Amino acid sequence: MLKKCLLIKILLIIFCSVFINASFANNWRLNMFKGVTPLSHEMYNLHMIAMLICAIIGFVVFAIMIYSIIHHRKSKGYKAASFHDNTRLEIVWTVIPFLILLGLAFPATRSLIKLENTDNSDVTIKIVGSQWKWEYYYLNEGVHFYSNLATPYRQIQNKIPKGNHYLLSVDKALVVPTNQKIRFLVTSSDVIHSWWVPRLGVKRDAIPGFMHEAWATIEKPGIYRGQCTELCGVGHGYMPIVVRAVPEEEYKKWIKKQLDEQQQWELKQINLNAQTNLTRKQLMALGKKKYLQICSYCHREDGMGLPPMYPALKGSSVAVGYPIDRHISMILHGVPGSAMQAYGDMLSNEEIAAVVTYERNAWENNTNDIVQPVDIAQTRVASKHEPKLVHKSKWGGLR
Amino acid sequence: MNPSATHISHGPEQGRGVIGFVKRWLYTTNHKDIGTLYLLIALLNFFIAGGMALLIRAELFQPGHRFLDPNTYNQMTTMHGLIMLFGVIMPAFTGMANWQIPMMIGAPDMALPRLNNWSFWLLPFAFLLLMSTMFHAGGGPNFGWTMYAPLSTKFAPPSTDFMIFSVHMMGISSIMGSINIIATILNLRAPGMTMMKMPMFCWSWLVTAFLLIAIMPVLAGAVTMMLADRHFGTSFFEAAGGGDPILFQHIFWFFGHPEVYVLVLPAFGVISEVIPAFSRKHLFGYNFMVYATLCIAILSFIVWAHHMFTTGIPLGAELFFMYATMLISVPTGIKVFNWVSTMFRGSMTFETPMLFAISFVFMFTFGGLTGLMLSLVPADYQYQDTYFVVAHFHYVLVPGVVFALMAGTYYWLPKWTGHMYNEVMGKWHFWLSTISVNVLFFPMHFLGLAGMPRRIPDYALQFTNFNVITSIGAFIFGISQLLFAWNIIKTIRGGKKVDGQVWEGARGLEWTLSSPPPYHSFSVPPVIN
């Protein structure tokens, strides 16, 4: 008996030490993040209370069960009792759980009301999910950019060792100020996505055609990572979120820098004289990189696509046919009514030229065409239509 | 009078050769034959969908792209879910209902035998249709078994239409099966078998059948609207045309949540048969068990939006659905407490069915408790669509429902075949399954809390350790199910003969019949005291 107790004690000590060590090590993380926003603290606390109550209920129920399994067995000669009804007992174990639930419902309701209160925000950011990247608009500041997965394709394919933050790094992080109430407006441009950053305690489904709110006040500067949490197609595992929280002055500087860069970028894309020429080798290398990063989800690494949803590029009329303009404008403007998106705002002329060149020369599409950034700029300029204003009064109310 | 002696001549009629064999099974209207067919198709599907789960776990064994490309991975998760729910659990319980209900209520057969034949024979074709989609151009359905629009409408592969049609066929099959069960229970009870004397298994199936009739048309409507959106230019689920993608989720979960209880209630029924038998004691609180079943069924219709807390439904709705969901744990708790009280001061023995039943009570309760945690909306924001949810519903469905199926199979298999199964192999199967199922699903809680979303084909490095453990558990669990299949096949083909009363403590009309029971169970209504 003594030996048994000792054994149990040793096991308990081992278990506890593993648990404590494990909860500190990142790779053996067991529990929810406490997070860095008031909401995430509340979620964490509620989670801990609920877990504790569940553990107690489980302990009581399982203890009674284990007791009867050990003692009330036929092999020990135990004779079965004959009771099979007790209304008073039934009422007791209906009422007690009900009271426990009431106790849980109060803090949950309180937190929930806070969670849904997005009033008096300082910064408003519109988040648009699309297959398979996030797009951020700072509505009052006018900054807009895309955030793509930055993990190299070769790491995913196990060709090179996996780096830090594998699948959780992006080319451009969302930058937000600390200690300010940030309001997120979440929507989508194609299928349903979900924007989740565990440490901010924010999870909102991005629903095409509808916009829903969430908020966070980040207490600590730092980098917080998350992922899309609603199945959104083949790239669902590859659309991470990175939020960089910085003090307010740094945030303001960052905004200003973004505005300048953004304006310059936009002007450069339509300025025919500002384009540089690249060699075939440079175009093919850059093209392959971008193709694998963006196009290969649908059109696949080997250009065979997944027809009929995602057409093949190998030998396709677009990728080997003429005019090349058709090929370019499909990438610039997308194909309405299909899964092909517009990449004109996301990719520079160099990148689009490289992708087009790559697609026209890879996988036996040996067209030998070389497309330069200036060609892209030309297509951009040519397809820029100013919206026409129609004065109804001039037409007598008829059109 | 010994009922089996007078009816031994009315055995199944089988002609010669292959044609005779095919005719016997294709034309059969006997509740036992159809029950067997249901159980066999469920067993087959269990290994197919289980194989898919193993492919998923193989891909997730290590980070990085390994065996399945993301599209195939998504097809596997979709198919695994659809086949496990519609092709394993539902047919298996329908099979058990077919075998057991007439015997339990003292009837000769099901009330509507031809309907019974049709409702089974739709299924093989429905599943062939569903599985054929994986070989279509563009691949099979890859949007998860929940088929959220617009991923399943505008962005889905063409084979989705086949899936829709197959869901229609499964729905028709379920509805017909349910009509049959209701008709049988309400009309064919032996004189003296009042409603409140019926075995719990019959009660839980009666309630389940009503649930199925209520929800299957809703699912059929949802997938038909999908079809219309895909091909007939409607915009039910597209904001651009005045629709709403969330409408799909509302309709789907209006079906989907009662569906959870369609899977779980028959499991409650089986457990309520097995535990009293091996505790040698009456089921504690029979009346409250019946009321709790009804209560769960009614509540299951008003909790659907707890699957959608993060979709931006209004605060009032979130509060309502949170309270309603929490409320469901009260009747479920009553059930658990009653099972425990049945065991308390019983005279227990631990044959394989009892082991599985006890394991069910432990792990189902565990899954139920995480369910309570999930009902708290603010905490749910951190759990939603992560591995925590995956862990929760697998705890309810695998060591919960599937273990109940196994308990039921081991419990009634000697009755059905007249042979005792191999107890040693059964115990091996039990211990291997129980240990590995926890190795498999327990670490998923940690993964979810640490931030791993579900349905991703690849994951960040900090999730590696628990994924490795999970995958190892999955393979042990998968392989140990071969023992189950082997044991069943051995028992069907031969083994120690058993008499009518297979288990010492088992009560109920089915044990008054011989093992195997006569082809037309009770041609003469039994006398009930």
How would you characterize this protein structure?
- The complex is a heterodimer of chains A (399) and B (529).
- Chain A is of the alpha+beta class and 399 residues long.
- Chain A folds into 3 domains: 32-62 and 91-117; 123-251, Immunoglobulin-like, CATH 2.60.40.420; 272-385, Cytochrome Bc1 Complex, Chain D, domain 2 (Orthogonal Bundle).
- Chain A is built from 10 helices and 10 strands.
- A 5-stranded mixed beta sheet of chain A has the order 3-2-1-5-8. A 5-stranded mixed beta sheet of chain A has the order 4-10-9-6-7, covered by helices on one side.
- In chain A, strand 1 (123-130) and strand 2 form a beta hairpin.
- In chain A, helix 8 (324-333) crosses helix 10.
- The longest helix of chain A has 34 residues, at 38-71.
- The radius of gyration of chain A is 29 Å and the shape is elongated.
- Chain A starts with a helix and ends in a 17-residue tail after the last helix.
- The model of chain A is unreliable at 395-399 (pLDDT under 50).
- Chain B is mainly alpha-helical.
- Chain B is 67% helix and 0% strand.
- Chain B has 15 helices and no strands.
- The model of chain B is unreliable at 1-9 (pLDDT under 50).
- The chains are: A alpha+beta (399), B mainly alpha (529).
- At the A-B interface, helix 2, helix 3, strand 7 and strand 9 of A face helix 4, helix 8, helix 9, helix 10 and helix 11 of B.
